[in-house]
Design goal:
66% of the residues lie in helices and 5% in strands. It is built from 15 helices and five strands. A five-stranded parallel sheet has the order 2-1-3-4-5, with helices on both faces. The longest helix is centred in the last third of the chain and has 46 residues. The two termini are 19 Å apart.
């Protein structure tokens, strides 16, 4: 995808080896896919900028390690060998230490603290591969490896933890609630029962309108980050904040309590703004460093955004190697989405909705516990039993609606990826 960056220290005794290495890699992968400062940076270019730009675009950093290499490293900011390795480690690049004849891999304690992780990478000995054949194979395999997408991991611990949390949340109000507060427990538990009902209504509405929502999301994903935030996120945040403030001032809330609710609404608005800025920063990074791996476990919305980015880059005549890597990466992501769409309800719930499952269980168990605590003095235990049955029914309908929607969305996005990629390949020469 992004090529290979050669990191070395200039010396008359080693320059012939480095140039031979560059010639071999360039013959295999092309001049544009291999970076060597003396061969790649043109006259009059700003040296630090070019180094950082090419390093950011590279997949693999080959570090030529010679005798006395560790002793020559400096941490004063002027040593480009040290700087490049530090940048590569921070960016998560694949690093291949290339050991020259008779050189051992340096020990961690002999390296500056900022690059001690360098010793964790598997080294390649030049003496065992004088023609650099196996080195080329390692480099060629890296884009394929980086294009792969891991399966969404299962979380077998989620089930036992959910049961334990539910038991604690139920037992705490029953065993610890003072008798004089049990009247208040009735009102709290009734109010708490409304939340699952509101969640069910929201999920049901989203599920019923999944096709128009999906179409709107597909259009919105084609926007650049600035346009998307201005047209979608900002108006939604303004409406939500204004609606919250209006409810506070139109409801029978004590005047002295209104500033608190306004503060809560303002805090929510600031959090939303922070999330918007974070999303903008992420999308700008992905645009400037295209193509970038998707975060795992893979989700439909990021895959759709990357698909739109691929279509734009391909239409603009982007680098063919990068386009091919991006195609492979998205095909793998689409396959993962398709497989995730075949999971049963419990596997999906524990893997994708872990925190929602834990918090929802704790909320329901605490609500029933409060109701049970209030019913114990009169032994009207049929009341919490009815409440539990009602909440369980509401939660079951909500989970079923959400499950069916996520299956449909995953399969729809996976189909979109395969269709669009097939069109790219059909029109490519």
């Amino acid at each position: 995808m992004g090529g290979t960056f050669i990191n070395y220290r200039r010396h008359d005794e080693r320059i012939a080896f480095v140039r031979t290495l560059y010639a071999t890699l360039a013959a295999r992968f092309g001049d544009n896919a291999v970076f060597l400062d003396s061969a790649t940076i043109g006259h009059g270019r700003r040296y630090p900028n070019q180094l950082r730009r090419h390093l950011d675009r590279s997949d693999v950093v080959v570090v030529v390690v010679h005798d006395g290499w560790a002793e020559e490293l400096r941490t004063d900011g002027t040593d480009w060998v040290h700087n490049e390795i530090r940048w590569a480690l921070a960016a998560g690049k694949t690093i291949i230490p290339l050991l020259m004849d008779g050189v051992a891999m340096p020990r961690a304690r002999d390296l500056p603290r900022t690059i001690r992780e360098f010793t964790n990478f598997q080294a390649h000995r030049a003496s065992d591969d004088p023609e650099h054949v196996r080195l080329c194979e390692k480099i060629a395999d890296e884009p394929r490896r980086r294009a792969s997408i891991g399966q969404t991991p299962a979380r077998p611990w989620a089930g036992p933890l959910t049961a334990l949390l539910g038991l604690v949340a139920f037992a705490a109000p029953v065993l610890l609630l003072p008798p004089e507060t049990r009247d208040a427990a009735i009102y709290i538990s009734v109010a708490a029962t409304v939340l699952p009902l509101a969640a069910m209504i929201a999920v049901a509405l989203v599920s019923l309108g999944r096709k128009p929502i999906n179409s709107a999301e597909r259009i919105a994903q084609d926007f650049d980050p600035t346009t998307y935030n201005l047209l979608v996120v900002a108006p939604g945040g303004i409406v939500l904040t204004g609606f919250s403030v209006a409810i506070v001032f139109s409801s029978p809330v004590e005047p002295q309590m209104r500033p608190l609710f306004v503060l809560i609404a303002g805090g929510g608005a600031m959090y939303l703004l922070f999330m918007v800025l974070q999303q903008y920063k992420t999308e700008k990074f992905r645009e400037d460093h295209w193509p970038v791996r998707l975060k795992e476990p893979v989700k439909p919305a990021p895959v759709r955004r990357e698909l739109e980015r691929l279509l734009r880059k391909h239409a603009a005549g982007g680098d063919p190697e990068r386009v091919r890597w991006h195609i492979t990466h998205l095909e793998n992501a689409a396959d993962v989405l398709s497989r995730d769409g075949t999971r049963d309800r419990w596997s999906w719930l524990t893997a994708d909705q872990t925190w929602q499952l834990l918090l929802g269980t704790a909320w329901i168990a605490a609500t029933v516990g409060l109701m049970t605590s209030a019913a114990l003095p009169t032994m009207r235990l049929w009341v919490p039993a009815v409440v539990l049955a009602a909440i369980a029914l509401i939660a079951g309908i909500t989970v079923e609606a959400a499950y069916r929607r996520q299956v449909w969305v995953r399969r729809t996005v996976a189909d979109e990826v395969h269709v669009q990629i097939q069109r790219i390949q059909d029109w490519s020469p």
